[in-house]
Specification:
The chain has about 675 residues and is of the alpha/beta class. Helix content is about 50%, strand content about 10%. Helix 13 links the parallel strand 5 and strand 6.
């Protein structure tokens, strides 16, 4: 609005509008003079100066006036144009109210009506009054309360009035649902090709109302938004977005929304992006509303979703948007880091290997990492420190997708705290090594080019409760500096057909971005044996198991299953799981090792005998509970943890698990 050309248009548009209003004003004056029965005198009596001013204002404008543009967009007749100006004149010219009252012969009726318009304006036609006429269909004017249609007050819609004066803004009735979509990041080459293709599809349409619905499918939400924004920009269209979950639910409300949006799209050259990427969270009622909007809207519409939606009543062009390739991610990382990238000495490869981030997330991670270094007063780009900060920033960028689906466990346990036989410990180290070296083996050495099946790293931890299965997962996560998420089976398994599969798909899809470690506790409940098909429920349950097998094999991160009952698992799972670790019940020497490391260094202790404590025949999880309860007892007495505190806590723990204590186990403790 600050450019000279815009300012000139604004002033010229104002002069043009007021000149057009002046011509309508003369028609009112002519009506008031009592000559309304002679149309020829009415037309001939119009002020020549006003007509001349109208022509001069139009010729001086660098672009068509808003009034003419609106009339062309909505196909208004000359009578409908004058009727709209009659309603606008009441708002813009203080003389219109008294003129309306005088023309209608009633001082109380100082407002426009259809009756007044039919009597006072030239080329009047009754069809302008019907609901399907442009004035009423597009809600350019509103009808106030009244007993009769022709006698009811008429008002120009506020959004339309401001448009005529040259002021553009989003209709406030849409402002709570619609938001402008502006993407600041540059497109990668593959996405740029998609944007150009989308623009070409729309540019070939005969008119804006013949545009096909464009559907962008895939997991990269930011990428799809960027493609849509770039395509619209190249066509001179603005782009606004409405989340599918924000749409009104009832038919009347969605129809009103569609009509308002269609008008807004025409007035502001706007395309609409319907964001259905969170469609799994939308109920059946809103699903119907979404379909209604897609089928009925005729202006430029882009639909984004993870999977293709079935759209039967509209011409549709589908685009499958893949995630960024490793090469594209490396380019974005290097460009975003700038000079700091040269000091990472190839560490960008490890970031690309572990985190599958989109363009915006990479830029966010770089900005956060570099900003933290400046904030801490460290402007030098130390290789190890920058790499560590970037890694943490990537973890943060990938977390929001999973935090609402599973419980994140902060890994703090170390290898020293994990007491297991040597073969099991060696296998756990091997699991961590596979995760660390997967980029080299899969990408640099070419195993990924042989196919995606079997590239997922999966492990099964079996053993009794409390033998260290969850702690082992935590140790691996700590070693790899990755997030560990425990899957809440109560939120995943559903009695409704297909819901369990849908919930698991959301978990795996969300986890892909950061390669998080997924921990499925008590996996036998979820990954059980496929049953003989006796009914439809059995058939769907088997489909879910097959789906899970495929996702486990394709998941780019580490998936760990824990179970107390290995035999309950489907043999197909056991065959396709890369690592199986049996966690034995700890023997006396292993229990001594657990007791040796169970208390933090800052915990005061008094003459604890780990050899005597090791005689207590319980698992490591029970030992931890006993140690914790003993610490609380000692803290309450303000004393160091002693054998008597542990004895009391041991009795309580064993009573809980219904285990009787023998003299051989606790003899000589106190």
């Amino acid at each position: 609005m600050n450019s000279p050309e815009t300012a000139n248009w604004y002033e010229a548009n104002k002069r043009y509008l007021m000149s057009a209003v002046a011509l309508v004003c003369e028609s009112l004056e002519f009506r008031s003079s009592g000559l309304q029965d002679n149309p020829e005198q009415n037309n001939g009596g119009q002020n020549k100066d006003a007509k001349k001013a109208l022509q001069e204002a139009a010729s001086a404008m660098p672009a068509p006036p808003a009034l003419d543009t609106l009339c062309e967009i909505f196909g208004l007749s000359s009578f409908e144009r004058d009727l709209l100006l009659l309603c606008a004149g009441v708002e813009l010219d203080s003389t219109f109210g008294p003129l309306c009252a005088e023309a209608q012969g009633d001082p109380r009726r100082n407002y426009p009506t259809f009756s007044l318009a039919l009597a006072a304006l030239p080329d009047a036609h009754w069809s302008a009054l019907i609901p399907s006429s442009p004035l009423r269909h597009w809600r350019l004017i509103e009808i106030g309360n009244g007993d009769k249609l022709t006698q009811s007050p008429l008002h120009i819609d506020e959004r339309v009035l401001h448009y005529l004066t040259g002021v553009q803004y989003l209709d406030e009735r849409l402002a709570g649902l619609i938001e402008p979509l502006r993407v600041s990041v540059d497109l990668v080459p593959s996405y740029r090709v998609q944007a150009e293709h989308l623009a070409k599809v729309w540019s070939k349409a005969a008119s804006i109302y013949a545009l096909p619905v464009v559907q962008l499918c895939g997991d990269d939400v930011t990428g799809k938004h960027s493609i849509a924004a770039a395509a619209c920009s190249s066509l001179g269209l603005n782009l606004s977005m409405v989340p599918a979950g924000s749409l009104p639910v009832t038919s009347d409300e969605i129809d009103a929304f569609i009509r308002l949006w269609e008008r807004e799209a025409a007035l502001s050259s706007n395309a609409l992006l319907l964001d259905c990427d969170e469609i799994d969270l939308i109920d059946a009622a809103r699903e119907k509303v979404i379909n209604r909007l897609i089928e009925r809207i005729r202006s430029a519409l882009i639909v984004t979703s993870k999977e293709r939606r079935v759209i039967s009543q509209r011409l549709v062009t589908n685009f499958d948007i893949p995630k960024l390739t490793a090469g594209e991610q490396r380019t974005i990382w290097n460009n975003a880091l700038g000079p700091a990238a040269s000091n990472l000495n190839g560490k960008v490869e490890s970031l690309v290997s572990q985190f599958n981030l989109n363009t915006q997330a990479i830029h966010n991670a770089c900005a956060e990492a570099l900003g933290n270094m400046v904030e801490n007063g460290n402007t030098r780009t130390d290789q190890e420190e920058l790499n560590s900060i970037l890694w943490d920033a990537c973890l943060i960028q990938s977390r929001p997708h999973l935090d609402n689906l599973a419980q994140r466990i902060g890994p703090v346990a170390t290898w020293d705290e994990l007491v297991l036989p040597e073969p099991q410990t060696r296998t756990l180290h091997e699991i961590a090594m596979h995760v660390k070296q997967r980029f080299k083996v899969y990408d640099e050495w070419g195993f990924a080019s042989k196919g995606s099946r079997g590239l997922g790293i999966s492990a099964l931890f079996t053993g009794e409760s409390g033998t260290g299965k969850t702690m082992a997962a935590e140790v691996i996560a700590n070693e790899l500096h990755l997030d560990l998420y425990r899957i809440d089976l109560s939120q995943v398994v559903s009695k409704y057909i297909g819901e369990t599969e849908k919930n698991l798909r959301r978990i795996f899809d969300a986890a892909e971005g950061g390669g998080a470690i997924l921990l499925f506790d008590e996996a036998d409940a979820l990954f059980g044996k496929r049953s003989e098909v006796r009914d439809s429920h059995d058939r769907y349950a088997n489909i879910e198991v097959s789906y899970l097998l495929q996702r486990m094999e394709a998941y780019r991160g580490l998936a760990i299953l824990t179970t107390n009952m290995k035999n309950a698992l489907d043999t197909a799972f056991l065959r396709r799981i890369r690592f199986i670790v049996q966690f034995p019940f700890p023997d006396i020497s292993q229990r001594a090792g657990i007791w040796q490391h169970i208390f933090p260094l800052s915990t005061p202790t008094d003459r604890l005998d780990v050899n005597k404590l090791a005689r207590l025949n319980v698992a490591g999880g029970n030992i931890r509970n006993i140690a914790l309860n003993a610490a609380f007892l000692a803290a309450d007495e303000d004393q160091p943890v002693g054998m008597r505190h542990i004895l009391y806590a041991a009795r309580s723990e064993c009573a809980k698990i219904e285990k009787s204590l023998s003299e051989a186990e606790i003899g000589g403790w106190v």
